[in-house]
Amino acid sequence: MRTRLRQLVVTAAVLFTAAASLPASAADDQDRRERPSQGGLSAVIRYTEYGIPHILAKNYADLGFGEGWAQAADQVCTLADGFVTLRGERSRFFGPDAAPDGSLSSATKNLTSDLYFRGVRDARTVEKLLAEPAPLGPSRQVKDLMRGWAAGYNAWLKQNRITDPACEGAAWVRPVTTLDVAARGYAIAVLGGEGRLIDTVATAQPPTGSATATPTPDTPGTPNAKAAARAARELFADADMGSNAVAFNGGTTANGRGLLLGNPHYPWQGGRRFWQSQQTIPGELNVSGGSLLGLPTVSIGYNAHVAWSHTVSTGVPANLHQLTLDPADPTTYLVDGRPERMTKRTVTVAVKDGAPVTRPQWWTRYGPVVTSLGSQLPLPWTTTTAYALNDPNAENMRFNDTSLGFGKARDTAGILKSLARHQGIPWVNTIAADSSGHSLFTQSQVLPRITDELAARCSTALGRTTYPASGMAILDGSRGDCALGRDPDALRPGIFGPERMPTLKDAPYAENSNGTPWLTNADRPITGYERIFGTVGTPLGMRTRGAIEDVAAMAAKGDLTVRDLERQQFANRVPAGDLTAEDASRACAALPGGTATGSDGKAVDVSEACGALKAWDRSMDTDSRGALLFDRFWRKLTATVPEAQLWKVPFSAADPVRTPNTLNTDAPGFARALADTVTELRTAGIALDAKAAAHQFVVRGGQRIPVPGGTESLGVWNKIEPVWDTAAGGYTEITMGSSHIQAVGWDGGRCPVARTLLTYSQSSNPGSPHFADQTRLFSAEKWVKSRFCEKDILTSPALKVVRVHG
């Protein structure tokens, strides 16, 4: 170990010396272009293929400096746009009615986004969290990383001309502070709670009329029980993010060491993208992977000993408290009969070409007052009742420390140790494998401490519907005995401690595709957790079913290597097609006269579709013929035929992976969906057996790049969510899907065996050579070979060494 540390230290010294001793002309040119000055901080950045930076620094502040500099070089416009959001200045620069990109909240307008984030600033929420001692607040190391990141970003701005047309010459691109960087982490933490309800947090106002009755599921004008449960489920089922990940233990692999395949599904545009780097402080930290933009730590990654990924969990990260109001004052609520006044936050936002807007917000001991859970579930603030949102991640500035702990871990036990110490994961599961052959799944996240017992004792009438159906608890806020309580191992009151988290260790495989923890491994189901974490014994999503089938077969086969992970990522198998395509083609062929009636009442000749469905290879590869036909048919069918009518064999908890099955081709919507699909494709001039590559693509630099993979309902591991544009020839852009993919193993040497792929590439600047280079790799189903060890970095044919300093 000492030899290894000495080698890293010597390498660092050589690199710093080498950068300083370039020939005079080269050094002068590099100084002009690539040597920002900021606060005495410095780092060496070694760029390898595809613009991936390997950042070498002496300490955490310097490491943050290099990270901030390099992120700005690739993503300055995207980052700057996010900082405008966090300062509550979108209305000032872009107008109040335009919509943010959705990366830092679900606000639908700039004005409500600004009112919320300006309110966070005015209340000094982030400053207070930063001031708390670790582990409640950030460690000194993370604070140094954030301080360095801000300095590095500012240094890049000072020393470089912006060429990205998205923000070239824009007044809103400005230097940032450590507080700005911390606020970005805060926004990411509350994405699943307050961030989903910003519109209502910013606009909820007390009633001005006469008293009205407390709404219940049976009150006219309010949702019925089923609608309320559906609204709660939809609110917390994030359509913008997903993921797959699987860890295999040593008993399934060729060499007894672990394997990990991570396939997070995140937006392809905007500020919730990943960005790749390697972070090295000799003798202290050496980790590689993907960071969420604006964060100074690696969010998903690997080191020499352990690899991890995340999947968006089924845990519901917030709950409601129904308030009983003082009849004389709707801004005063009662707890055990004693009145408590709401806190009024008056927030003012500057508006482009208009007068500033000033609005009050109302906060309680539980959190902000809200008046809806989305458009389908109004929660009226009456003279007798209001609802307050509890989001425990509004006190969570611990995500970066948790991630940093992962980067330092030497095994899956180290991953669990970081989770237990920092308790900072807001809305995802963690799946990990290590070089000793261990595998791990854990849903260790910050959740309101809603036990089933508490929900049974304290749920309101509406909560008795929403909690069993969705995990969204609505508790009686007028009773002190309905407080969330505290676990002895929890860092804060009101959240679950580590011992309560659904966890599976050392299973042959541990897999999650955004499903409940229950079937992380089909042979070792997890049970006994509270409803707020997820369900047990309920139907699985199509992607979860397909993933379990695939990885269970892989584990049973054994002798697995990284190459097997690569094949799984791009198998592009369509589980929905395996279940239904044969039945669909047979029923199609049996239609009288080969015709079906469409939604417009017209008869359509669908006979050609029957053969195309039968010949289709059941994949969403770019060269698959008939894939587009099935995709469009399946979307229309599942949108119009209820789940209960879709299958002949219903779901059985005794056989959850293989049920439901057998397509009900007698359902009235079957023939109609087929007719509508044929009409749609023919109208667009798309052949029914066209290759997917011709009609599922993105355009980068004026060139079409075919995209493999398929949508959620198809169940494809390699998930993408494309945008349909009939006039432009099919699917012409991707909103979200496979993003920072990594396949990691170990062979007994000092370097992990890793392959990575950033599907949308490193840079958002269309003038960058790294704007679409990895997107073309993704299209060709190829990978980037990891350069983790020094010898691999220094022998890269694309090596470019840049010294950045202040």
Automatic annotation (TrEMBL):
Domain of life: Bacteria
Gene3D superfamilies registered for this protein in UniProt: 1.10.1400.10, 2.30.120.10, Glutamine Phosphoribosylpyrophosphate, subunit 1, domain 1 (3.60.20.10), Penicillin Amidohydrolase, domain 1 (1.10.439.10)
Signal peptide: 1-26
Regions that span the bilayer: none
Pfam family, one: Penicil_amidase
GO BP terms: antibiotic biosynthetic process
GO molecular function, one term: hydrolase activity, acting on carbon-nitrogen (but not peptide) bonds, in linear amides
UniProt entry tagged with the keyword Hydrolase: yes
Region described as Disordered: 204-228
UniProt keyword terms in alphabetical order: Hydrolase, Signal, Zymogen
Family, similarity comment: Belongs to the peptidase S45 family.
Protein name: Acylase
Lineage, top ranks: Bacteria, Bacillati, Actinomycetota, Actinomycetes, Kitasatosporales
